What does this fold into?
Amino acid sequence: MSISDGTVRIDPASTTYREVSRLYEIAQGLRPGSADRWNRELYARSDDKLGGLGLDGTLRIQQRALDDLAGGNPRRQAEALATVLHESEHARSPVDAPEEPNAVRSAESFGLDEAFTEISTRDQFDEFIRRAGHEGLPKPRLEYPGAVQAGEALLDRVTNSADERRQLLQTALDQPVAMRWDAVADHVVRTELADVVPPNPAHQQAARAELVNRMATGEWRVVKDRPPLGKVTGEITTEGVDRAVKDLRDHYQQNPGEPYPAKVPNQAAAVAVQGEQQRAGDLRRFLGGQASAVGAVRSRPSLG
It folds into this structure.
């Protein structure tokens, strides 16, 4: 059975479906999340995308990648296995956070999401294939090298050890996609600004908001599809952290009792927008025009 985008449903009784399900459960077992968004519908896709997880929970994997799961070509098998691992990472947390004032409900969050998800996929790959019984395969190539480069620059800027970096990465990935910038900001406030920012929630939220605003720059909208932008995106982002930290320190030296006057990233939450239809509209604007990111798509690199 096909659906409108040319994908073909995989029979749950088939060998292919059972293998994807087995691998998915292994991947989820590596680091269980707060959600499991896969609805157990699996489709083979015929476009140039390796895989994607739709908002409806449907998992779509390229037919060639499904075939490669069985082995034959080690490089392609590794790529296929990484696709399942990558999509399972997307499935373990929600996408939106409409009521959170520091939610970034725009394409910048999808850029950071793909960066952190790809880094996590790479970091967990060896253990994943060991548990799956496929030890010895080569590391797959990065699907989003620009986003990964920028994401690693950010992690390097705000952490001081491999353990701290790993913990922040996983903490961010435990949050909804729209809240991952806030997770990084919270880490910076706790590790670099705890001596000046009061523990009061209003002060904490405002300080995080300023960091979020400085980090989530427009380059993150496109860096996953434009690898050459990785370096400059990383530089702009880390410079944003530096400026925000300085400005926050300066503010609290002069006005220790006043929260930093930061713009709230999610204005809808800031004014307590009411009504289910309005929230649905906000979600559509958050997701509008982001088909690849919304589907958590891993695109095969262009050749030539």
Notes: Residues 8-299 form one domain. Confidence is low (pLDDT under 50) at residues 272-286, 288-304.
